[in-house]
């Protein structure tokens, strides 16, 4: 079965890191996040993916010059301008000549969803579209779904206010669709699958949902991107061996960390330097980041080649962009995003 992976969003909530790198190419414990999505699909027998691109497409194309990831063949559908989620699906489906049941995945989601079960559920119900749904505490950041007992979707509401959310079941960002869904999407304009197409399918009674409560995380915010890394450090991804893991810290062999540093739940990528008496707790240092002596950082992401001045105290939850210098003695907390367009 062919799959479309949507990776054309601008990743605004992870700025400034996403000014220079699309979010799905940001490293998750040293490996671009998109590779984990491919590994998951490959485990469910997917052999062919159309990457639906628009924003900074060259990062994907140049990273995988042989046109495959995890043994899955890739083709690239690059939108001339952002078409939003449904517009992107139509564009990619036409690009790849999709004329049979197909899969769509939001490329920023990490999950152990049983995709094969989702496909079987879709075939059994005879639906036009089937979405995986996942229970969460606060559904307001997501698409919220109400079904009847047989799984037929009654209501699909994108990002309602928390008090208006009709359930706590959210769109988990994996869909099985029939080609007839593509013909419901207008060509050449922005169309949102969540705001236009799913509500229309729900109205027609041809949209179904399957509940799955396996591991699920949308990595698109600083807090969830950090969580995704910490989950891998704590053994979530047991199939992949992490050779440089010590306790719950992954440290690339080219990095230098002072013996007096206290480090837990941290990713220290290649060519980083960590000074004396530094405390890192729940921190990602991207390649080439430098942390000077006596700094304390908690729950924060430090971008490539950024420099954190001595005695600074950062987090939670700071996002420091590529090559930004934080002055000695800085104190930053709350969601702070440092750095602009590079
Ligand atoms: N090609 C293309 N073109 N891709 C796009 C575009 C576009 O114009 N806009 C967004 N995308 C991609 C993003 O890169 C991402 O992988 C995916 O579509 C979803 O976009 P997000 O911006 O991450 O959406 P969200 O997280 O706010 O909400 C979506 O995901 C939730 C689950 O994670 C919605 O689908 C919600 O309903 C859902 O609950
Ligand atoms: Mg998202």
CATH T-level topology of the largest domain: Spore Coat Polysaccharide Biosynthesis Protein SpsA, Chain A
User: What is the overall number of helices?
Assistant: 8
Computed over alpha carbons, the radius of gyration is 21 Å
**Percentage of residues in strands:** 25-35%
What is the H level of CATH, i.e. the homologous superfamily of the largest domain?
A: Spore Coat Polysaccharide Biosynthesis Protein SpsA, Chain A
| CA-CA gap between termini | 39 Å
Bound compounds, each kind once, are: guanosine-5'-diphosphate-alpha-D-mannose, magnesium ion
CATH architectural type of the largest domain? Alpha-Beta Complex
How many domains? The number is 2
Low-confidence stretches: none
Walk me through what this model shows.
This protein is α/β, with parallel strands linked by helices and 342 residues long. The chain has two domains: 219 residues, Alpha-Beta Complex (Spore Coat Polysaccharide Biosynthesis Protein SpsA, Chain A), CATH 3.90.550.10; 96 residues, 3 Solenoid (UDP N-Acetylglucosamine Acyltransferase, domain 1). Strands 15, 16, 18, 20, 22, 24, 25, 27 and 28 form a nine-stranded mixed β-sheet that branches. The longest helix has 13 residues. The two termini are 39 Å apart. The protein binds guanosine-5'-diphosphate-alpha-D-mannose (GDD) and magnesium ion. The site of magnesium ion has 4 residues, from loops.
């Amino acid at each position: 079965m062919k799959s479309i992976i949507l990776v054309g969003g601008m990743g605004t909530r992870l700025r400034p890191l996403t000014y220079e790198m699309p979010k799905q190419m940001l490293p998750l414990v040293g490996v671009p996040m998109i590779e984990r999505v491919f590994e998951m699909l490959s485990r469910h027998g997917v052999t062919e993916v159309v990457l639906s691109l628009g924003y900074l497409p060259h990062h994907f194309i140049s990273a995988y010059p042989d046109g495959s990831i995890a043994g899955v063949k890739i083709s690239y559908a690059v939108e001339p301008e952002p078409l939003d989620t449904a517009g992107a699906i139509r564009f990619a489906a036409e690009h790849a000549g999709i004329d049979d049941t197909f899969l769509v995945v939001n490329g920023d989601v990490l999950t152990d969803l049983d995709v094969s079960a989702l496909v079987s559920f879709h075939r059994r119900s005879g639906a036009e579209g089937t979405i995986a749904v996942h229970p969460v505490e606060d559904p307001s950041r997501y698409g919220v779904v109400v079904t009847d007992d047989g799984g037929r979707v009654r209501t699909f509401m994108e990002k309602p206010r928390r008090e208006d959310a009709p359930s706590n079941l959210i769109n988990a960002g994996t869909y099985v669709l029939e080609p007839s869904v593509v013909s419901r999407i207008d060509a050449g304009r922005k169309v949102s699958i969540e705001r236009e197409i799913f509500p229309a399918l729900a109205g027609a009674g041809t949209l179904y949902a399957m509940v799955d409560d396996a591991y699920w995380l949308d990595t698109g915010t600083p807090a969830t991107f950090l969580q995704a890394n910490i989950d891998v450090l704590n053994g979530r991804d047991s199939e992949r061996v992490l050779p440089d893991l010590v306790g719950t810290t992954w440290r690339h062999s080219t990095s230098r960390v002072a013996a007096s540093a206290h480090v837990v739940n941290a990713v220290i990528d290649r060519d980083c330097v960590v000074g004396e008496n530094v405390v890192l707790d729940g921190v990602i240092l991207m390649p080439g980041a430098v942390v000077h002596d006596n700094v304390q950082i908690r729950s924060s992401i430090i971008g490539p080649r950024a420099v954190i001045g001595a005695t600074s105290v950062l987090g939670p939850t700071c996002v420091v962009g590529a090559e930004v210098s934080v002055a000695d003695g800085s104190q930053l907390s709350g969601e702070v995003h440092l750095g602009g367009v590079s």
